[in-house]
Write a structure and sequence with these properties.
With 90 residues, this protein is mainly α. The protein has a single domain, classed as 3-Layer(aba) Sandwich (Rossmann fold), CATH 3.40.50. The chain is 47% helix and 9% strand. It has three helices and two strands, in the order αβαβα. It has helices at residues 19-29, 46-55, 67-87; strands at 38-41, 59-62.
Length: 90
């Protein structure tokens, strides 16, 4: 495996899935060094952002967003994940 896991993409505002629970489930399956998790949501409340981070998200992006912002956040997460994996930190 190349260190990246393929997870399905879910809209955080879907009524049949709680994105905080999904993040928690994903985090129990993989460590931060294996997979970075970015929550992308229409919800901009501080409480929603906090819940995502407490559940294990590494970053949070509120929609609508600028594509450049998404690209910078992904680049940052990938560099952190690569650094942690290289250092052997979990």
């Amino acid at each position: 495996m190349n260190g990246f896991h393929s997870w399905p993409s879910y809209a955080s505002d879907m009524r049949d899935i709680d994105f905080v629970e999904l993040i928690s489930l994903m985090r129990t399956c993989v460590t931060s060094e294996e997979t970075a998790i970015m929550a992308i949501s229409t919800e901009a409340s501080l409480d929603s952002v906090r819940q995502a981070f407490v559940a294990g998200a590494d970053d949070y992006l509120i929609t609508p967003y600028d594509p450049g912002t998404l690209e910078r956040k992904i680049d940052h997460l990938l560099s952190q994940t690569t650094s942690l994996a290289t250092a052997g930190v979990s």
